[in-house]
Amino acid sequence: MAVMTADEMINFVVNAKNQGWGYVYSGQGELYTLALAQEWGRQNRAGKSYDYYVNQCARWFGRVVADCSGLIIQALRSRAPNYEDQTANTLMERSTNKGAISSIPENPGVCVWRKGHIGIYIGNGKVIEAGGTNIGVVTSNLATPATNKAWTDWGMLAGVDYSAVPQAPEVPVPPTCWLGRFFKLTDPYMNGDDVAQLQRALQDAGFPPGPIDGVFGPRTQAAVMGFQKQAGITADGIVGSQTTQALLGVWVTDFMGVPCCPWKESPLDSFTLGRLLKTYSPYMRGADVQDVQYALEENSFPPGPPDGIYGPKTWGAVLSFQKANGLQTDAIVGPKTTQALGGLWTGN
Description:
The protein is 31% helix and 15% strand. It has eleven helices and 16 strands. It has helices at 6-18, 34-43, 50-56, 68-77, 88-93, 193-204, 218-231, 241-246, 287-298, 312-324, 335-340, and strands at 4-5, 28-31, 64-66, 96-100, 111-114, 117-123, 126-130, 137-141, 153-156, 160-161, 178-179, 190-191, 215-216, 250-251, 272-273, 344-345. α1 crosses α4 and α2 (34-43) packs antiparallel against α3 (50-56). The two termini are 30 Å apart.
């Protein structure tokens, strides 16, 4: 059942961006303070450390914070306060009329997704996403996500009414790229999605680097040097903060000011679990089982298809995860296993 229109969803996430919302893992629209950070740190909330909440997220003190799905859930709760908590993967799983990102319609308000991460497409090739602890809630280009990792799918969220297609809002031009490591010609060549973002930015600036292949080879180096010369930067073919900013990109740094690749600080979202999951006959089922299955896969213990059924494969994956993480090996997903998987335990 829809609780808000696509236009309302767009307005909410654009306002969140304009208000400077930050990103804190497991956040869902809370005002972030030192006291709250210390409380979450002492709890090891969602398996994150005290250092993460108190130090690494200190840049967001005084701001409202959310993780990627938390931003969307908070939007839905602005119209339906008791709207069910869901992860990025569950939001996508329950979406309708979904497809590969290459087929995304010009329908502002649809979600864009890759495994573990989600954002809202606002039209004209732009996305609002909670891009990670070092980035916050930002506007990004559809082709150059703030996480450096490409979107794979789109979908119409189950809680949103898309019967009327809203106009794309007027927002500032997003950054051309999100870079957090130095690039230069090496042997073997440097490569990655961030290199592809750099190549697109060079091409848009009028310095085509050849194929957008994500490989920093001689043609990309030549394009960098040509751009640097025109921009009045030392033409050494090395891409750092100065060249990134001249390209109208963002040079990403961590809480200590150290360059940080966005993909290394995985901006996934947390899940909640309020009951013990264990082997029963008939098998336990539900969206919470599916959340655990996705979390197991993200932690490199794939349980098979995320079908929401706590069957033998999920049982075995939980057992292996517990053993690898020094937990009691009983294949029961309770508070400690939930936390180790990056989830929030809400049960008694």
